[in-house]
Amino acid sequence: MINFIVISLIAFAFIVLRVKYKDTFMKFKSFVFALIIFIMVLYIVLYPREIIDATRDGIILWANVVLPSLLPFFIGAELLVGLGIVKFIGVLIEPIIRPIFNVPGEASFVFAMSITSGYPMGVKLTSDLRRNNIITKNEAQRIISFCSTSGPLFMIGSVAIGMFNNPSIGPYLVLAHYLSVITVGIIFRFIYVDEIQVSKRYTEKRNIFKEAVNQMFKKRQQDSRTFGKLLGDSVKEAISTLVLVGGLIVTFSVVTRELYLIGLIDYLISAVKFITKNTILIPNEWIEATVIGFIEITMGCKITSDALTIPLTSQIILATMIISWSGLSVHAQSASIINGTDINMNSYILSKFFHAIISGIYVHFMLKLSNFTLNPIPKEVFSQGIRNIAYYSWVSKLLFSSYMLLTIVIVLIFIGFFIALIKNK
Fold it and tell me: Which chain regions cross the lipid bilayer (predicted)?
């Protein structure tokens, strides 16, 4: 009761100061942030073993999973943009993607890379396209709304198999996640409608093949860097971004651990219990999973899968929403990546909120319509499968990501040629 009253008073003070006394609020906010940093550092000193464990977990996750999975995509994407191949693909595919999302064809490349590699690939590519003035600010806002997704390997391999021990959950997670993000993209199509008239020129008759080739060479000439210089810059930019992502992963791993050490999770559970007293019975595990999932995607999904007091269908819905929201950890990565551009971070967060809500609705109806039942993996198969996933070699992950990158480019070019053949008839 006392903890809840204290938290409520602090929240009320924030609101009053923000509305009535803006200058005082800014000073108070700075003081609160300084106090939070001081408390975090203090807990690092008081609980070094727990903090070291959290740091190690974050580094292992980054080094064994994120680095080999994203390195080929980051380097390859920089090269493809610099060589003009992304522009070539964009011109070919624009006739179908512009009417749907009101964005240029380059968004098809961003979307394909995002759904294959996962967070934060879509944000990285959108930021690069904006920095190179390939897309406008409004187009960047629309692209980033539906090109920030998780990858199927995480949803199926890590969540469905690794956490829920239930491969039949995988298709529900993937389908709801991607259908909802497409829905969000269509919704954001009608934002900044002043640019809709741009799409009219894509209904005109023209030789798409010739235009695609001309645009590719034009982009290459504008870049003007030699291939060696372009390759070096691509590697340097990729490593810099991955180090940034790794640092944020470790930071939020430590922050999550400190939330437990401070006891804030218990305070929040008590606060929700007090608010919903005698009205709604919410299990403690549900509150914990929601709070942690709001901050960090992997731990949120893990706690959700372990919440035995929550029905399986509710676990799936919550996990889907956590994956779509992606957590403050991914949001921080995205904010760092788009820093220096004019892309609005608030618009991005709003799109992720819509993504989470809509994905939860979609998966709810999918589970209802399919009469979903539990179909777990036999224990011995599950153990062997997890072992294979956990000990998949670093080089194998790197090669697989490279293979996926090459496949994406080939498939997109093939689709572009097919569209161009139809349009030129």
Answer: 28-47, 59-89, 143-163, 169-192, 238-256, 308-328, 349-367, 400-422
pLDDT above 80 (res 198): no
At residue 27 the predicted structure's pLDDT band, cuts being 50, 70 and 90, is: low
Structure tokens at 57: 């977990």
Q: In terms of pLDDT, which residue wins out, 166 or 241?
A: 241
Summarize the confidence of residues 349-362 as an average pLDDT.
Answer: 96
CA–CA distance, 253 with 260 (Å, rounded to integer): 11
Q: Is the model's pLDDT at 293 over the cut of 60?
A: yes
Q: What DSSP line would sit under 16-64, residue for residue?
A: HHHHH-HHHHHHHHHHHHHHHHHHHHHHHHH-HHHHHHHHHHHHHHIII
Give the distance, in angstroms, between the CA of residue 403 and the centroid of all CA atoms in the same chain: 22
Do 105 and 93 meet the contact criterion of CB atoms below 8 Å apart?
yes
**Mean of pLDDT over the chain:** 83
In which band, very low, low, confident or very high, does the pLDDT at 12 lie, cut at 50, 70 and 90?
Answer: low
